[in-house]
Structure formats: C-alpha cells, structure tokens
Design brief:
The protein has eleven helices and 19 strands. α4 (162-173) runs parallel beside α5. The chain has two domains: 3-160 and 330-362, Medium-chain alcohol dehydrogenases, catalytic domain (Quinone Oxidoreductase, Chain A, domain 1), CATH 3.90.180.10; 166-307, Rossmann fold (3-Layer(aba) Sandwich), CATH 3.40.50. With 363 residues, it is an alpha/beta fold. The protein has helices at residues 43-49, 97-100, 153-156, 162-173, 189-201, 213-222, 235-244, 261-269, 293-298, 313-325, 344-352, and strands at 3-10, 18-24, 31-40, 59-60, 64-72, 84-87, 118-119, 122-123, 125-126, 136-140, 144-146, 181-185, 205-210, 226-229, 251-256, 271-279, 302-305, 337-339, 359-362. Bound molecules: zinc ion (2 copies). One zinc ion binds at residues 42, 44, 63-64, 161-162.
Length: 363
C-alpha cells in the first residue's frame, strides 16, 4: 500500500515552499522506505527552489537526514526494518570505472530509487535523490547507512551532507594530519566542519577566515586557534596575515569553503610550498579564476576539489557517529535550532541572513 505523508514541496521557481500530501510507494527491489526523524536545511535545498540546479519541478526538498528503516524491498541486505540510518547521496554502484579501480568514494554512477514519489499523480524530483523533508521517503538501499542508534537524529542527519562535506574536505581530500597547519575560508556549516575535522585530525594551527565576526566566533568555538576578519583586506594582506601566523611560511592545507574567486586566490597564495588547496565551496557557473601558470607550477603541491568530502558513507558515517558518541567530535554545536516541517521557508531566510549554522526539521 502506498503511503500518504506530509512533505515539503517546491512547485515552481522562486515560489515559497509548502507542506503538501505526497504519495510514497512501497519499496521495490533494492529500495527501502525510511521514516524520517530529522532533516537539516541545506543551501542546496534553497538552490533547488530557486531553479538553480535544474527545472525538474516539483521538487521534494530535504536531503540531510536520519531516520528508521520502515520497509525493505526485495534483495536488500545492507539494512533491516528498524535500523537507525543516515541517508546519503553516494550509494556506490560497484561497477563504474572508479569503483572498479578501488575508488568507490568517487563513484560516477551512484544509485537512487527507481520508483518516484508523487504529488497528485505528478512525479516529484527528490532533492539529491533523497527528499527527506517528509514523514517517509523512498531511497535506494545503498543510500541508507546504519549507525549507532544512540545518536540523536538531529545530530546524525547532519553527517549526510554539509558537515560531511566539511569534515571530509579536511580529513579525506586535504589529508590533514598531526602537526599540519590549516586555514579555512568561510565559517558557515561546511567551513566549521572543516575546522572540526582539522582539529580531530591533529592540526596544530587552524586559522579561520571570514568577513563576519559572528561566524569567526563560531569557528573559535569549534577549535580555530586563530581568526582573521578579512573584510576590507586585499589578497596580499590576507596572505601576509596567514603567513604571520605560520612562521612566515603559509599553511600546509588551505580549505576554500566559500566558492568565490577572491577566496580561492587567497587560499592559493596563503599555502606553504608543496601545500594543498582544497575547494569545497560551490562556485556559480560564471566564476573564473586567473592565476599565473608559473605560480601553479613553482609552488608545487596540489589543487584539489572535494566532492561531498570525498566520503564513503559505509566507511565514514559509522566512524564519525562513534567519534561523536565518544565525545571527540562536536556535532551538537552545528544544530542552531530545531524546527517543524512547516518552518522550512522561514529557515531559508535565516540561512540567507547567515543567522544559523543549521536549522533542523524534526519530523
Ligand atoms: Zn561506481
Ligand atoms: Zn546539502
């Protein structure tokens, strides 16, 4: 029997989102239905509503979620009914050229559910193949990763997107380790997660850079050892400030969590020789960077991009939840407020104003 449940839908470009009654089918082969307990509000949800990702309206929003598996389809073996799971948008295929080379964290053919959820007979496009601002959602079984059920759902769900992107930018893509120096541009949810990831990986210097003192305060709370308010500063001034905090050398790993040419340029020049730049902020299609090629060569090291923190959900999600439950990973600090399913539109406005790290919908 298909289920009728409430879900947050964006019907047309730019229009406010609304809670609608949607239809969720029973799971087919390889699919599961999850009773969502909590789902964080992410910038990507807003980008869907604005038509900035594609125009396949109506969208069922929400993708940063945790909940309990309520039904499993035929052939599902990785989870059972009743399992507490975090949803992910990297259900690896095992068969693409990246998986076959032993690099499933970059899987190029990730799975989603085959069936669609619907609104009055119209197929919904689920945000990032998840659609979790809803009482139930249908996903591919590989999109559900079982974790320790003693974690709070509002905290566990954050691992499913933005916090994983930031932690992974530091721990996976940047390879931060003991004794490294790190600088992070942009201290919202992703940047603060990069700071947290750097801290638990053993970085000895963590420099937070932002234009907003409130965000720099958050960064300090997560473990930034130094902060730079770069408002009104030139690239050279920011680079000099980073160098002054690192013995005149620059940082080993420069993490750009803004997605802007200015921040990227600062990150490029503020790293030490043979250092690494990690881009995890999402640029828009018009943005360009202009760097002297001799500097790209002469400084050595590497310029990397981080997709979803280069995470492998089956490897990383249970490990990060365990670190949190041991008190070693501060995930609770990311939850600025818990809200109802009716409050997503208001949460978008708070996010745009930079007032919150994460609003989490409790369902
Ligand atoms: Zn693959
Ligand atoms: Zn997201």
């Amino acid at each position: 029997m298909p289920h009728e449940v409430r879900g947050v839908v964006a019907r047309s470009k730019g229009a406010p989102v609304a809670v609608e009654t949607i239809q969720v089918p029973d799971p087919g082969p390889g699919e599961v239905v999850v009773d969502v307990q909590a789902c964080g509000v992410c910038h990507t949800d807003l980008h869907y509503r604005e038509g900035a990702i594609n125009d396949e309206f109506p969208f069922l929003l929400g993708h940063e979620a945790a909940g309990t598996v309520s039904q499993v389809g035929a052939g599902v073996s990785n989870v059972n009914e009743g399992d507490f799971v975090i949803l992910n948008w990297r259900a690896v295929c095992g068969q693409c050229r990246s998986c076959l080379r032993g690099r499933p964290q970059y899987c190029f053919e990730t799975h989603n559910a085959h069936q669609k959820m619907t609104l009055d007979g119209v197929e919904l496009t689920a945000a990032l193949g998840i659609g979790a601002f809803a009482e139930k959602t249908l996903v591919a079984a590989g999109q559900a990763t079982k974790v320790d059920d003693s974690a709070e759902p509002e905290i566990a769900g954050l691992i499913g997107c933005g916090v994983m992107a930031g932690l992974g930018a530091a721990m996976n893509t940047g390879g931060v380790t003991r004794g490294d120096s790190v600088a992070v541009w942009g201290c919202g949810g992703v940047g603060d997660a990069a700071i947290e990831g750097s801290r638990i990986a053993g970085a000895h210097t963590i420099i937070a850079i932002d234009l907003d003192d409130r965000k720099l305060k958050w960064a300090k709370d997560f473990g930034a050892t130094h902060v730079i308010n770069s408002a009104g500063m030139s690239t050279d001034q920011v680079v000099e400030a980073v160098q002054a905090l690192t013995g005149g050398n620059g940082v080993d790993i420069a993490i750009e969590a803004v997605g802007s040419p200015a921040a990227y340029e600062q990150a490029f020049y503020a790293r030490d020789l043979a250092g690494t730049v990690v881009l995890v902020g999402v640029p828009n299609p018009e943005m360009r960077i202009d760097l002297p090629m001799i500097e790209v060569f002469g400084r050595g090291g590497s310029l990397k991009s981080s997709w979803y923190g280069d995470c492998l959900p089956t490897r990383d999600f249970p490990m990060l939840i365990d670190l949190h439950l041991q008190g070693r990973l501060q995930l609770d600090r990311f939850v600025s407020e818990k809200i109802g399913i009716e409050d997503v539109e208001a949460a978008f406005h708070k996010m745009e104003q930079g007032e919150v790290l994460r609003s989490v919908v409790m369902i």
